[in-house]
Design a protein that fits this description.
The complex is a heterohexamer, with three copies of chain A and three copies of chain B.
Chain A: E1 5-15, H1 19-28, E2 34-38, E3 41-44, E4 47-50, E5 61-68, H2 70-84, E6 89-98
Antiparallel strand pairs in A: 1-5, 1-6, 2-5, 3-4
Chain B: H1 3-20, H2 23-36, H3 45-70, H4 74-101, H5 106-117, H6 121-133, H7 142-148, H8 152-164, H9 175-183, H10 186-215, H11 217-239, H12 245-269, H13 273-284, H14 290-298, H15 304-334
Helix pairs in contact in B: 1-15, 2-11, 3-10, 3-11, 4-5, 4-7, 4-8, 4-12, 5-8, 5-15, 6-13, 6-15, 11-15, 12-13, 12-15, 13-15
The chains are: A alpha+beta, B mainly alpha.
The complex binds adenosine monophosphate (3 copies) and sodium ion (NA) (3 copies).
Chain lengths: 104, 336, 336, 104, 104, 336
């Protein structure tokens, strides 16, 4: 059996033009890594959007997933919140277990 | 109206008709219609991005090759200076006009104004195609002028926002990195880089790549305009409710105002008739790629549903169908 | 067999050989072979979608330009009517044939039948290329006929399913929105939209975009057929186990039956030899883009592994390699 | 520290042709938003699929992620189930915490 | 109300060239299915990467999501670990609830 | 130096200058510059993949058509054999050279060596373009030789790794499936498949697809080299810190050593001056698509930041700018 270690999975849906600001905030908050996933389309309180046909970044969202230490989760969410407060985006946090704890 | 103006009017109408029935405009119309009818017709994002890059590569390269033929001239510097002045000035004008006629909050007005100060490369391209169809030529360095005019408007708008909407546009966001980001924007780099390569290699360098960069250009442009029509149509459907008659009117009046302003500067630049038409069109065009992305960072409180709908949903189609022949007619006066 | 039939047979064999050794067919074969050998060769989804749109744009535009030359004729309406009749009728025939020879459940049989009543644009295109290679021309309005024939078959199949498989195809799903969805399907809109634009602008509009829409066509077609070969080969590998000898036989017999039916209607349409070959090929072709997607909505219980494998994995290659010269030979009889 | 609020994260793998039906069902169930993520390939009981090379929607899956209020989760899953019962797809629900509760 | 059944959601960020090895390991571990999601870019301890412009597989990551029975989760994670031990990748496991338990 | 060498040197410098100022090289430089300046200019992954496939399709097809003209000759087999020998041999040489001059662990050294034994198709293409610009022709079968040279180097490197780094390259990983995977690699299949199709259809088959496969080639190549520049620049920025002066030196010395080795074999192959230049360039080129992916599977402990930076960040630009004219000059000696 492989040993599992509890961590937090932070998932952020963020508008594409603000992506660099967000990853900078993650870097500053000391996360060990993140992965960026494309989004095709969506709907929120601000209406619906679709990336189809867009030649530029405005009007498109991407998703950033970062697995972080529980001890650091608060700081990460605060850092993310500072960026996202003025941007379009959604943040959710869940419990996960990982192998290779030294990785995080 | 005297006979001259009469024939100008007739000429304008013919130009306009010819323009509206060109494949480029018709594909845009097809895109809008498909989007409004909720067809699932769509161009994948990766393709849309690449089509945009291709257009930059092509017009940059061709512009550079033209400049290689003529060499650097004083005219270029003068036109560049005039472009920068317009890009700074138009947002100020636009902002106050918008505040005068509508009840748009200052931050939205500043963001909208930035779009009209900056330029739209596809409008530029559509104007060059219309001109070429009539046998006109234009100065190659206008490509570089287009690139130069992208950014100053953003600076202007930020200054306006900090003054009139201090809470939304506080000074937290340093302006330097933002301008660097915009200046190193992929499409600007592609445009100026290809321009430089065209300049370096000259006509000899264009020859082997001409089947790709020159011959395909108009067909690719049709596909890109179909895509723009789809995006604009989708935006119209979604953004309609946020717009008032005043803002709609602005989206048609403002390009004409900018065009008049640019026309006034034409005599100082020494541009040819074709070049003047392009220059006036640049001033009248409104950004829909670079500036919206910049506004999401610099003025996130400003609503994209307003500035994108005005720029891409109203002004772009207006310019494409009516503006281009109008600006051409206008420019014809200035170079007599 | 008399001498005429003999030479027809010899002519057919030569046509078939020439067809099979064309780059278009060979690239399809390459794709199938690569997929069966489990190579990781693949065309990104965004590219495959765009290649399909490009083909629609090109054949639509070129068809419209042809119609601009000839104007609207009674022949068009007659051909369109014949096409609609076939699209409604073929599924009924196919359904009963399939039920007769195989033990396929009614819902699967109805879904398969829908594919054979509708059409495949790439088969259409491959037929036009084969014809052009032999110096034949064909009526431009057949592009519109192709678009019209896409949908009726779906309606037919739904009626069959509701009758013979009432539990699977209950009336919960309203048929109106479904037909609207299919009619506004991206590829249909692209095809008809480009057709309309070609019609409006005529040959003068085609000229500047010809390097893109005309000259590149055959090369792009090769790439698209490579892609179709890859998808078909992947489908063959996966779908094989769900198929019986009877369904496999159906996938080869049905297009021939449809072709005969279409050939019988040709004299009513007044089509030229080239046009007749295309019309017969359309009837014989089976959909693999629009109808599968429609079936996932309208008859979700029907198994894609059956209808996709039959349509794309058996009938399409059969038509590409053997059907096209066969239908051409068949059509030659009808217009004598 | 940022306040976190418990929500449910609904993740639906659905065949592309049924996407609109699914998002309509989400709309009817009153979700405040969702984000659509592309899928490249996959395997299920029905065999494997890949989106590569596909020019059409049939045979391709997409993923819809929606963060919903716990009180509404049941209704959402029921609404989704009504659509998915006849289509190809997989639904999973997990616990998450979000900032900006007013958003959901 | 729809019945929900507890399962585990295994999410694996893996370098693209090792994808087939990973899905083979999942097959061997007896998972009933998985879905592959593209990743655009990311950062880890080994630095940052981006898929943009890459014509080949090296240097790109993808994400594999598999919902598995809790009873099988250990075996799955072990199987995955055996592959990933030598490759670049991150594995996380979380609790989810699914409808249609027979599916897994 | 005698007069002949002098004029050779002058000729080389002229070639080098001409090469560096070609659009192809300049677009690569633009890409590197944009990446180093942290511009967000980028080509979507789907497009980059497709551009690479297009290049394979085009050179494969054109090579096959050439072979269709000449038929199968003994020269082909001899060149193929020489290519295989080089692909096996160069990694052994490279590995020991690298271990001699640097302190790189054996597993990293083996992985790097594999890249230099294998080949880079874009370097091949750039060399053919440079030759064509000077009116040289080359043997079409070199395309097949290129494909054949991709794989043996990997085998060589694995043997080296198993011998010198047994813990990293244990025998757990069976070598057969790995070689099959590499041999059925999408780009190899596209290259050899298009080669076969070109061979089958001959010049008659090329004609209809020439506007796509031939005329666009150089323009597409520019776009692809822009992309390679962007990726290389990004890699340079990230990989720099893992490199030493010794490994950097290796990345420039090794291609020259390989070129000399290949030049020594040229007389045995009977290649023309153009063909010899291509053959020498192939030997000197280093893989950056197929081998990196294979190494991630076969030698996962080896660091991509080292082998990718050396191959794509140093050797590729060196070959593109200086190597190609150098190898051409070198080849000119061997065929006298
Ligand atoms: N409840 C939600 N679940 C998942 N994604 C959401 C949700 N709400 C918003 N989003 C995503 O975030 C984007 C912006 O949301 P909003 O700011 O509410 O318009 C939407 O278009 C969705 O892509
Ligand atoms: N256990 C699972 N975990 C993640 N995705 C799954 C799972 N089962 C099925 N899927 C996805 O849903 C698709 C259809 O599943 P199925 O209906 O079981 O064939 C598969 O091809 C996968 O993409
Ligand atoms: N903590 C994390 N959260 C999410 N993704 C991660 C994390 N760490 C690493 N990754 C992803 O896995 C890749 C390789 O990680 P590494 O091996 O740490 O360099 C990164 O580039 C990310 O895409
Ligand atoms: Na402007
Ligand atoms: Na049919
Ligand atoms: Na080599």
């Amino acid at each position: 059996m492989v040993d599992m270690h509890p961590k937090k999975r932070v998932e952020i849906v963020v508008e594409a033009p603000a992506l660099h600001r967000l990853t900078d905030a993650l870097d500053r908050a000391g996360v060990t890594g993140y992965t960026i996933v494309p989004a095709l389309a969506g709907r929120g309180r601000g209406g619906s959007w679709s990336g189809e046909g867009l030649a530029g970044d405005a009007g498109r969202m991407v998703i950033v997933v970062s697995i972080v230490d529980a001890a650091r989760a608060d700081a990460v969410v605060s850092g993310v919140y500072a960026v996202l407060a003025r941007q379009i985006g959604v943040v959710s946090v869940s419990d996960v277990a990982v192998i290779r704890a030294d990785h995080f | 109206m005297d006979a001259g103006a009469d024939s100008t009017m007739a000429g304008f109408l013919e130009l306009a008709a010819q323009n509206i029935l060109s494949p480029v405009v018709l594909f845009f119309v097809l895109g809008v219609a498909a989007a409004l009818a909720r067809s699932d017709l769509s161009i994948p994002e990766a393709i849309a991005k690449t089509l945009a890059l291709y257009l930059m590569m092509s017009i940059g390269f061709k512009g550079g090759v033209e400049v290689a033929k003529t060499g650097l001239t004083a005219q270029m510097l003068k036109t560049g200076a005039a472009g920068i002045v317009l890009s700074f000035l138009i947002p100020v004008l636009g902002f106050h006009l918008l505040r005068l006629v509508s009840r748009l909050p200052a931050v939205d007005a500043a963001a909208v104004a930035a779009h009209y100060g900056s330029i739209s490369i596809v409008t530029f391209v559509a104007a060059t195609e219309a001109l070429r169809g009539q046998g006109f030529t234009f100065e190659g360095h206008l490509v570089a002028v287009a690139a130069i005019m992208e950014t100053p408007a953003i600076l202007s708008a930020l200054v306006l926002a900090r003054r009139y909407a201090p809470s939304a546009a506080d000074a937290r966001e340093p302006i330097g990195p933002l301008l660097r980001e915009i200046g190193l924007n992929g499409s600007v780099v592609m445009l100026l880089g290809s321009f430089a390569i065209g300049w370096i290699t000259g006509p000899k360098g264009l020859e082997p790549v001409a089947p790709f960069l020159v011959d395909l250009f108009r067909g690719v442009l049709c596909l890109f305009l179909l895509d723009m029509g789809l995006v604009a149509g989708r935006g119209m459907r979604a953004g309609w409710k946020d717009l008032s008659a005043a803002t709609l009117g602005f989206a048609i009046a403002m390009p004409v105002v900018s065009a008049l302003l640019a026309a006034a500067l034409v005599p100082l630049t020494g541009l040819s008739a074709g070049g003047a038409a392009i220059f006036v069109t640049l001033a009248a065009s409104a950004s829909y790629i670079a500036v919206p992305a910049a506004m999401r960072i610099a003025l996130p409180e400003a609503r994209p549903s307003i500035y994108l709908t005005l720029s891409l949903g109203i002004t772009f189609p207006f310019n494409l169908a009516f503006g281009i022949p109008l600006y051409q007619a206008l420019a014809a006066f200035t170079v007599r």
